[in-house]
Specification:
- By secondary structure, the protein is of the alpha/beta class.
- Among the domains are: 201 residues, Glycoside hydrolase family 3 C-terminal domain (Rossmann fold, 3-Layer(aba) Sandwich); 115 residues, Sandwich (Immunoglobulin-like).
- 32% of the residues lie in helices and 18% in strands.
- It is built from 22 helices and 26 strands.
- A six-stranded mixed beta sheet has the order 11-16-15-14-12-13, with helices on both faces. Strands 4-3-2-1-10 form a five-stranded parallel beta sheet. The chain has a five-stranded mixed beta sheet with strand order 18-26-25-20-21.
- A hairpin with a 5-residue loop joins strand 23 and strand 24.
- Helix 3 crosses helix 15, helix 8 packs parallel to helix 10 and helix 13 packs across helix 14.
- The longest helix has 26 residues.
- The protein is globular and about 75 Å long.
- The relative contact order is 0.10.
- The N terminus is likely disordered.
- Bound molecules: beta-D-glucopyranose.
- The site of beta-D-glucopyranose has 8 residues, from loops.
- Beta-D-glucopyranose (BGC) binds next to loops.
């Protein structure tokens, strides 16, 4: 009897549900334009339903801050939450989606977000490392693969790319971006957005992307995470905003606010950023989500007295969705009733959010992204691992190679592989490694062993830990080193020393690692230092004394294979730094496109801009990276000596020759200096680059184009314009490229 009752109840529930869905779906038939479909859903919604769509809660998976609410399943059932983050895997998300679709009044599907930053399961190099490849196609591909895997694991939305320009290596989050340069940052932002979003959001292998953290988060004072930002509007617009603008032009569907204040207003309450610039100037029609509880944090900033006022400020500024702070959840209804928030403003946000749910095809098939079979097939697919290895080796930067220490010969008989990171797997996937499983990552030791095979004796010991003062392991390391023909020593940071809330005031190698390297170098054997770290380090001794020095960042799942490819010459390194390496932390902030000052450095003149105790120059400049080959640059020319705004683009040509002895890739960089401006201009600015492959001995003539648009900046009246005058052009292998010519813009 009970059973029959249950069947009866179940069919009633089913019938009600079927009617509801039919009703919703008739009104939202796929053939109709999205805006009409959004209208038809909005007509069915109460104000409470609408506020629910504007609320994003974390699931009970890993969190990056305090979880304000538990019982999110009940919230889903009650239609009080429109999006969930940190929940992943096809099966888990399918179940949550089922609750939303089948157990809520309207059956509006949930949106699932996650920090798929440099891979979902197959982990690629940390973004800063990957940017050192200067290979836009490869970066687009890595984002594409991340999306393919994540979209099979129940996800719709990644909180990436992080497009914050960062010029302070103390700031741990420098690791998550594309370095210090605005032009390069903008190109990489486009590539990553395209990679994640693909060409059709409704496909089952695309994610919506999120340009974060809007804006100027990378300018945190003293490199301390979450610290205040105090920059001019000119610097904001010229340095920090262009990558966001590029992401918007590339079609990014969401923006995330930043934690910092700007012009005295926290970003989540900044109408200037969120409405005046983003909507009115740039025409963005996606939605804006806050960073984690950043609405509530406005109370600590001291700009509102309580969460309710914070919600009001934030919504009126232009935030559409509250991440985890529950301020919209708790207060929007009251604010609407009190007339402090208009229903029109709420409708705007809900429309933006629903529009994207339609674009993703969630109303047509809410389970499209939750297919366990597809998940199994896509995660760690062999072609993904292959691509991860390829981009990992492209991201490695050869910083020093005295007497051709590298590449090492595969004919070697005994090799010592030492250092705390030599056999490590855990750190290799870096911070923000999504659902990555470090146990799947290939350690340097394993990569080398696989490369050399059983015939070569590969000896290993740690020597010391990453941190701490214990040197007892040195003895063993030196004993191994003495019996080996060459030594590879892997040192650096642990993954959690960069990323969020991981600023360091001292950016030297932690612990006694440098001492270990010094002891190994003192043996007189060939020593290759392999650095693994998420930020520029201050390593003057290594930079001047290590026989060979490789910057390998945190390269991800295939790290060991990728590094071994470079060590033994199966891949000729081609990475170039996208961020300056200082000599010491006292030089920070140090970046290549600084201003000249009125007293440029003159070593003969005390009263010029310099330090008493360290040169002005960095340890390694932006754009720098060696190859096993030498490249020669010659014949830098322009097709005219004068050009103007209306004429066809200026052609800049230059010949690059690979002098050998290996085939290899080179990143050819074009810089411009505006000699005289109505406001002072940087000493150089990157305006173009090409990554080319040249066979040993081969040469190529490359053509760059420049238009007056490329020379624009905010003039004295804050008008975006190119000013007539002389421009110096430089083409070469890094930001110090000496080869130069000039051209006049009339
Ligand atoms: C970070 C964001 C991240 C968010 C969600 C925050 O703490 O600042 O970058 O997307 O957490 O995990």
């Amino acid at each position: 009897m009970k059973y029959l009752q249950f069947i009866g109840l179940a069919s009633v529930v089913f019938l009600i549900h079927a009617f509801k869905l039919e009703d919703t779906f008739q009104k939202t038939a796929p053939a109709k334009p999205i805006e009409e479909r959004v209208d038809s859903v909005m007509k069915l919604m109460t104000i409470e339903d609408k506020i629910g769509q504007m609320t994003l809660f974390t699931s009970d998976w890993a969190v990056t801050g305090p979880t304000l609410r538990e019982g999110y399943r009940d919230d889903i059932k009650a239609g009080k939450v429109g999006a969930i983050f940190n929940a992943h895997t096809a099966a888990y998300n399918r179940e949550l989606q089922r609750i939303a679709v089948e157990e809520t009044r309207l059956g509006i599907p949930l949106l699932f977000g996650y920090d798929v930053i440099h891979g979902y399961k197959t982990i690629f190099p940390v973004p800063l490392g990957e940017s050192a490849s200067w290979d836009l196609e490869a970066m687009e591909k890595s984002a594409r693969i991340a999306a393919i895997e994540a979209a099979a694991a129940g996800l719709h939305w990644t909180f990436a790319p992080m497009v914050d320009i960062a010029r302070d290596p103390r700031w741990g989050r420098i690791c998550e971006g594309a370095g210090e340069d605005t032009y390069l940052g903008a190109r990489i932002a486009e590539a990553r957005v395209k990679g994640f979003q693909g060409d059709d959001l409704s496909k089952d292998n695309t994610l919506i992307a999120c340009a974060k953290h809007y804006a100027a988060y990378g300018a945190a004072q003293a490199g301390r995470d979450y610290h205040s930002v105090d920059i001019s509007e000119r610097v904001l617009r010229e340095t920090y905003l262009p990558p966001f603008m590029a992401a918007q032009k590339a079609g990014v569907r969401t923006f995330m606010t930043s934690f910092n204040e700007l012009f005295g207003v926290p970003a989540s309450g900044s109408r200037f950023l969120l409405t005046d610039v983003l909507r009115d100037e740039w025409g963005f029609d996606g939605f804006v989500v806050t960073d984690y509880t950043s609405i509530n944090e406005m109370v600590y900033h001291g700009i509102v007295a309580n969460d309710k006022d914070a919600a009001e400020l934030s919504l009126n500024a232009g935030v559409d969705m509250d991440m985890q702070g529950a301020t919209y959840y708790n207060y929007l209804l009251q604010l609407v009733r009190e007339g402090r928030i208009s229903v029109t403003r709420v409708n705007e946000s809900v429309r933006r959010i629903l529009r994207i749910k339609f674009e993703l095809g969630l109303f047509d098939d809410p389970y499209r992204y939750s297919d366990t079979e597809r998940e199994k097939a896509r995660v760690f697919a062999p072609e993904h691992l292959e691509a991860a290895r390829d981009i990992a080796r492209k991201s490695i930067v050869l910083l020093r190679n005295e007497k051709n220490t590298l590449p090492l010969s595969k004919q070697i008989r005994t090799l010592a592989v030492v250092g705390p990171l030599a056999a490590n797997q855990r750190e290799l996937i870096g911070s923000w490694s999504g659902a990555g499983d470090y146990k799947q990552s290939v350690s340097l030791l394993d990569g080398i062993k696989t490369k050399l095979g059983a015939g070569v004796k590969v000896l290993h010991t740690e020597g010391c830990a990453i941190t701490g003062q214990d040197k007892t392991g040195f003895k063993n390391a030196l004993a191994l080193a003495k019996t080996a023909e060459a030594i590879v020593v892997a040192v650096g940071e642990s993954a959690d020393m960069s990323g969020e809330a991981a600023s360091r005031s001292d950016i030297t190698l932690p612990g006694v690692q440098e001492e270990l390297v010094k002891a190994l170098v003192a043996t007189g054997k060939p020593v290759v230092v392999v650095l693994m770290n998420g930020r520029p380090l201050a390593i003057p001794w290594l930079a001047e004394n290590a026989p060979a020095l490789l910057e390998t960042w945190f390269l991800g799942t295939q790290a060991g294979h990728a590094i071994a490819d470079v060590l033994f010459g199966d891949y000729n390194p081609s990475g170039k730094l996208t961020v300056t390496f200082p000599r010491n932390v006292g030089q920070v902030p140090i970046f290549y496109n600084a201003k000249n000052t009125g007293r440029p450095m003159d070593p003969q003149n005390k009263y010029t801009s310099k330090y008493l105790d360290v040169p002005n120059t960095p340890q390694f400049p932006f754009g720098f990276g060696l190859s096993y080959s030498k490249f020669e640059y010659a014949n830098l020319k322009t097709d005219r000596s004068v050009f103007n705004t209306d004429s066809s683009p200026l052609k800049v040509t230059c010949t690059v020759r690979n002098l050998g002895p290996y085939d290899g890739e080179e990143v050819v960089q074009l810089y411009v200096k505006d000699r005289v401006g109505s406001v002072t201009r940087p000493v150089r600015e990157l305006k173009g680059f090409q990554k080319i492959f040249l066979k040993n001995g081969e040469s190529k003539t490359l053509t760059f184009t420049l238009t007056a648009d490329d020379l624009k900046f905010y003039n004295r009246d804050m008008i975006w314009t190119a000013e007539p005058g002389m421009f110096d052009l430089y083409v070469g292998a890094d930001s110090n490229a000496p080869l130069t010519t000039s051209v006049e813009l009339r």
